[in-house]
Design goal:
Helices cover 34% and strands 37% of the residues. The chain is an alpha+beta fold. The radius of gyration is 33 Å and the shape is elongated.
């Protein structure tokens, strides 16, 4: 019996030694193969572009004692706004209702210590796309809408963008990959190692169109249009890459 247990113990020892040796053979330095290896870098590609699309968020908001009166006022104002948009070259397909709301307007009654409904507010908003060649007339379009809707007009903001940024993203990607590879080569040289093959790469893009806010008070009393400039926007793409070390 003692010999049998001695044999089992010897086999366990041999197996343990084999596992240790196998683990060490995975790396010439004796480091476990589970440890992350390689050179990890990031690259950024940024391409400035000229916008070719302006998106306006605008609408009307009316308040009255009854829902019917508030709706009537909002409908009349919105019809005038729509007419102003189409007369300034905006196609029907580029005008889309984005929000419609009817809600009570309340006021706190100090005598009864209760909230009372004193009227109703109707809000009707649309998203409007302004394309070339009308892009240079954004200020004119905004002023026309402000006049058409009068005091019921609400303009919540303007964003400028590129309608089809595919080629711009391709250019940004090329810059990002080139930068990442240059970083990896520089790191390898500084570390005294030889850069190996690319073993992993992924990308992420970040593009936030600038928002321009509009105030009706900016309309010139002399009748000149509100100055709106598209400027430039940046399309940015980031990559993360991992290279092996030879």
């Amino acid at each position: 019996m003692f010999k049998k247990w001695l044999f089992v113990a010897a086999m366990v020892a041999v197996l343990a030694t084999s596992l240790i040796v196998a683990g060490c053979q995975g790396n010439s330095t004796g480091v476990s193969v589970n440890q992350q290896t390689g050179i990890s870098v990031t690259g950024e590609g940024k391409v400035p572009v000229t916008p070719d699309l302006a998106t306006l968020q605008l609408g009307v908001s009316a308040q009255a004692k009854t829902v019917a009166d508030a709706q009537a006022q909002a409908t009349d104002a919105m019809n005038k706004v729509m007419a102003a948009l189409t007369s300034n070259g905006i196609a029907a397909k580029d005008i889309q209702t984005s929000y419609y709301n009817i809600q009570p307007v309340t006021q706190w009654n100090q005598t009864t210590q209760q909230s009372e409904t004193i009227g109703y507010q109707v809000t009707n908003s649309v998203t409007v796309k302004v394309r070339a060649p009308n892009l240079n007339n954004v200020g004119v379009i905004i002023d026309a809408v402000a006049v058409a809707g009068g005091d019921l007009t609400r303009i919540n903001g303007i964003t400028f963008s590129k309608e089809d940024p595919t080629t711009d993203y391709d250019a940004a990607r090329s810059k990002a990959v080139t930068q990442a590879k240059a970083k990896a080569q520089s790191m390898a040289t500084l570390a005294g190692v030889q850069l190996g093959n690319l073993i992993y790469i992924t990308e992420s893009s970040s593009y936030v169109p600038p928002v321009v806010y509009y105030d009706k008070a900016t309309v010139s009393a002399a009748g000149s249009s509100t100055p709106i400039s598209p400027g430039e926007i940046d399309i940015t793409l980031d990559v993360q890459a991992v290279y092996a070390i030879k």
